[in-house]
# Entry
Amino acid sequence: MEFRSVSVLGAGAWGTALANVAARAGHEVSLWGRDPAVMAAIARTRENPHLPGVALDAGVTPQTDLAAAAKADLLLAVVPAQATRDLAARLSGIVAPGRPIVLCSKGIERGTGLFMSEVLAQTLPDNPAAVLSGPSFAADVSRGLPTAVTLAAVDEALAQRIAAALSAPAFRLYHSTDVLGVEIGGAAKNVLAIACGIAAGRGLGASAGAALVARGFAELGRFGRACGARPDTLMGLSGLGDLVLTCGSAQSRNFSLGFAIGRGQTPEQAMQGKLAEGAFTASVLIELAGAKGIDMPIAQSVEAILAGRISVDAAVEALLARPSKAEA
# Structure
């Protein structure tokens, strides 16, 4: 199949950025959103309020008819991780078998412990899944700033074809067959970014921030290897690359959430009106790690802080009081 048309399902900041990318790559692009009033405003102004100052590419058509959007040759699912199952259920019966679906959210489903590709395999088993992940901010991508990400699919030929189809000036895609490894990096780094934001908000200094990134990556690596992820994937764009970006910038919603908590806000206050995937992923990540006997003290501290079981100062004290050990 040749990918002439692309539908982006989800009209948030990241969905809008990817719609612009697909249009720059020469495709007919539909940007689907569920709110008719919002999509009508985007069609009228050619600007998404989630990305102020960024014009919608001329090749992008706002759309509210999911059945019409599902007819595209290639679908990009760009809804929050916890909404992926609902979107897949809505696509059941209206998307043609064999039509590839690229999953663009980073998280683990609460209640099931499934990654997004596993959710899709349950709900739309006849549609091959691909995963797009890596160090990327919507504002940078929308403005055409240089960005490199990973596109993974079990079928390497499919991964290559999708990567080639979505490649645009300044947007470079590397392909992989390590779907789960790419998903693990994207999900775990969000939790670790909250920890780095807390440290920054608390004024713990650059040295503490660097230590959290390094030791957080060690945790991500232990978890990834236990799940069968390839070491090169964890060291690549969707692992280390995304971790470094997300753990050091206020553009990251997860870092910003942690920063607000570090400044004294309660998790409830910090999360009000904001979507930070790491806040939903933390508890299920810890459950999965515990089931595999994987020690993730930084992620565990984030989960405990978000759940209100421990204060920021107590979490810092507990991490510093851990027994001395060899670095690994």
Remarks:
- The longest strand covers residues 147-153.
- The chain has a mean pLDDT of 95.
- The first helix runs from residue 13 to 24.
- The CA atoms of residues 145 and 170 lie 6 Å apart.
